[in-house]
């Protein structure tokens, strides 16, 4: 997860050039064939199935893109759930990466970070002015550059045991303060974080999907 977008960009450029030469050499058309599109749709990101239709719309609001670079076969919600489960066996504290999302346009900073955290309580998350609380899971808040959703993951195989408190977070560490569209960005980050939280709750087989609804609730909590 420390790979920067320029590395991906060089890889994709090299790959595209190689494919273009291969296609041109085989077709006999003088190398004029267009290189295949190696980008992917949002629903294929991070192992597939973790970005809902609403999440895809949120990604377009945040990045302006509808196609994205391959997020890698090892950086998936399923792999994150396995790592989280291993942490939960030995301790109730831990954190890690789910994946990173790079729009397939221009030089978009260093991509969106998607991470997980497990804690002994639902208290994780910053309480600062730029965050707007939202009624999802145990605790949810969104800002113009990040959002997190914390939910209680009850164990179906251990009725009566204390739940794990799991957080899915999406953020852009290089985002700048928006000019006039802060509410739209907050909603987009919240919808995308909800999408990953729900996917993680399903992968962990949490009771009642961790209390998360199929759709995000974007009306601020009162």
Q: How many distinct beta strands?
A: 6
State the end-to-end distance. 37 Å
The mean pLDDT is 79
Separate helix tally: 4
Q: Work out the radius of gyration.
A: 19 Å
Q: What is the topology, as strand order, of the major beta sheet?
A: 1-2-6-5-4-3
Low-confidence region ranges: 1-32
Let me know the largest β-sheet: 6 strands, antiparallel
Helical content (DSSP H or I, runs of 4+):
25-40%
Beta-strand share of residues:
15-25%
> What form results from the Cα inertia axes?
globular
Indicate the structural class: alpha+beta
What order do the helices and strands follow? Answer: HHHEEEEEEH
Structural descriptors:
disordered N terminus, 222 residues, 32% helix, 4 helices, six-stranded antiparallel beta sheet, alpha+beta
Describe the structure.
With 222 residues, the protein is of the alpha+beta class. It contains four helices and six strands; from the N terminus they run αααββββββα. It has helices at 5-27, 53-63, 77-90, 182-203, and strands spanning 94-101, 112-119, 132-134, 139-142, 146-153, 164-171. A hairpin with a 4-residue loop joins β3 (132-134) and β4 (139-142). The chain is globular and about 50 Å long.
SSE order and pairing:
Layout: H1 5-27, H2 53-63, H3 77-90, E1 94-101, E2 112-119, E3 132-134, E4 139-142, E5 146-153, E6 164-171, H4 182-203
Antiparallel strand pairs: 1-2, 2-6, 3-4, 4-5, 5-6
Helix pairs in contact: 2-4, 3-4
């Amino acid at each position: 997860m420390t790979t920067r977008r320029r590395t991906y960009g060089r890889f994709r450029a090299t790959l595209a050039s190689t494919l273009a030469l291969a296609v041109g050499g085989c077709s006999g058309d003088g190398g004029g064939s267009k290189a295949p599109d190696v980008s992917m749709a949002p629903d294929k990101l991070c192992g597939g199935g973790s970005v809902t239709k609403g999440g895809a719309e949120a990604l377009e609001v945040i990045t302006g893109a509808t196609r994205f670079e391959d997020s890698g076969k090892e950086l998936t919600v399923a792999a994150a759930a396995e790592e989280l489960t291993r942490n939960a066996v030995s301790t109730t504290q831990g954190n890690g990466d789910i994946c990173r999302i790079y729009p397939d346009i221009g030089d978009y900073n260093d991509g969106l970070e998607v991470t997980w955290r497990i804690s002994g309580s639902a208290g994780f998350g910053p309480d600062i002015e730029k965050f707007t609380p939202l009624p999802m899971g145990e605790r949810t808040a969104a800002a113009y550059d990040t959002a997190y959703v914390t939910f209680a993951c009850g164990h179906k195989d251990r009725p009566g045991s204390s739940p794990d408190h799991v957080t899915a977070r999406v953020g852009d560490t290089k985002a700048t303060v928006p000019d006039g569209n802060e509410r739209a960005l907050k909603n987009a980050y919240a919808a995308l974080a909800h999408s990953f939280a729900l996917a993680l709750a399903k992968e962990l087989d949490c009771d009642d999907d961790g209390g998360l609804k199929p759709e995000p609730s974007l009306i601020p909590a009162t």
